[in-house]
Amino acid sequence: MTRPFRIGLLRLSDSAPVMIAHNTGFFAQYGLETELVVSPSWANIADGLVWKTLDAAIMFAPLAMMTSLGRRGHMSALKPLKTLSYGGNTVILRGNNPFTGLWPAGEEGREVFEKWRATIGRRPKLSVVHMYSTHFLILKRFLLSIGVNMEHDVEIQVMPPPDIIQALIEGAVDGGCVGPPWGTEACLRGLAFLAGGSETVMPHHIEKQLVVPETVYGNQHTCHALVRALEDAMIPLHAPENRRAIAHDLSRSLEKKGLNLPQEATFRTLSGDKIAEKTYYARSSGETENVTWMLDDMLGLDWINKKEHDALKAEWTIPVSGVPSTKVEVLK
Fold first, then answer.
1. Which of 180, 222, 198 has its CA nearest to residue 82?
2. Residue 193 phi/psi, 5° resolution?
3. Cα–Cα distance measured from residue 311 to residue 204, given in angstroms and rounded to the nearest whole number
4. Cis link prior to 181 (omega < 30° from 0)?
5. Class of CATH domain 5-86+206-261+279-316
6. Per-position pLDDT tens, the chain of length 332
7. CA–CA separation, 85 and 181 (whole Å)
8. Which of 84, 103, 113, 323 would staple 223 via disulfide (CB 3.0–4.6 Å)?
9. Right CATH number for 90-201 from 2.60.120.620, 3.40.50.300, 1.20.58.220, 3.40.190.10?
10. CATH 3.40.190.10 location in the chain
11. Hey, how many other C-beta atoms are within 10 angstroms of the C-beta on 118?
């Protein structure tokens, strides 16, 4: 290539595998010169893939699927290459929790919601990171579990993950479903409390994947290099003794090859220490890949039709190890 292979990502702790693979030279070890592009929003990530300013990106499946179908305007065929993380999304709400701990389902949960809403004094404003996101689907399921209608009982707005901190401070939102470490950071600062999330709604669901355009997917050398580098990067993430150092590295500024993440919140999402919503990172084998629940929800929301549902299920149920078929010697 005449330029580095460009990978898009957001300031999130589940970007850690790609950050490690880049900063420690795992990509270079497999013959890839990479450049990380930290984007301000998921819309920017999707646009980067569509307009070919990015060669790959960390994404959640619903946005990648809808981009591939042309639902965002311009169509760009995208392929899932490697699952990176599971779970980790938090449903956080500002103010004081009228219940001790995570909210229960059913009528009791609805009563807790009404008590909380009374302290807000209006229809609550809740944020998601993108309308075509796992966060939207998790929030909708959480609200349905307590008998709250997303369309009528709350107001939904889109907000990049890091922005929720300032929005909570200013009272611009009353909570939302946000990825790690920003929900944990809001709770640590006393800006919000944890009401639910991935573990209470859909435990261990696929969250972030490395997604590539179809043109890149056709290059087996590049794809195997990406997958093997990421598998190497997962190893330190699974060792508890490394997590404090990884959190420290992710807290560095962008100029110092970090993501400017809050260090303590990042450590807690990596370790699960004193937090109910931990981020799980993929292993090289033994994981369960399940996109059916997402597709069922997307079908119920009329985002896709039944034919598209079945086609996407076949295409996005990928092997844990990524590119499945031809064994090609990786670039050295």
1. 222
2. -125, 160
3. 23
4. yes
5. alpha beta
6. 478 999 999 999 999 999 999 999 999 999 999 999 999 999 999 999 999 999 999 999 999 999 999 998 787 899 999 999 999 999 999 999 999 999 999 999 999 999 999 999 999 999 999 999 999 999 999 999 999 999 999 999 999 999 999 999 999 999 999 999 999 999 999 999 999 999 999 998 999 999 999 999 999 999 999 999 999 999 999 999 999 999 999 999 999 999 999 999 999 998 876 666 889 998 765 455 679 999 999 999 999 999 999 999 988 876 544 454 333 333 22
7. 13
8. 323
9. 3.40.190.10
10. 5-86+206-261+279-316, 90-201
11. 9
Please provide the size of the chain in residues.
332
**Distance, CA of 253 to CA of 269 (rounded, Å):** 19
Q: What's the half-sphere exposure (Cβ side, CA atoms, 13 Å) at 73? A: 6
Q: What is the DSSP string of 197-260?
A: EHHHHSTT-B--EEEEEHHHHT-HHHHHHHHHHHHHHHHHHT-GGGHHHHHHHHHS-GGGTS--
Please tell me the distance from the alpha carbon of residue 45 to that of residue 314, in angstroms, as a whole number: 24
Residue type, 22: H
Count CA within 13 A, CB hemisphere, residue 236: 19
Question: Which whole-number Å values give the CA distances from 239 to 51, 98, 233, 244, 271, in the listed order?
Answer: 38, 37, 11, 10, 10
Confidence (pTM): 0.93
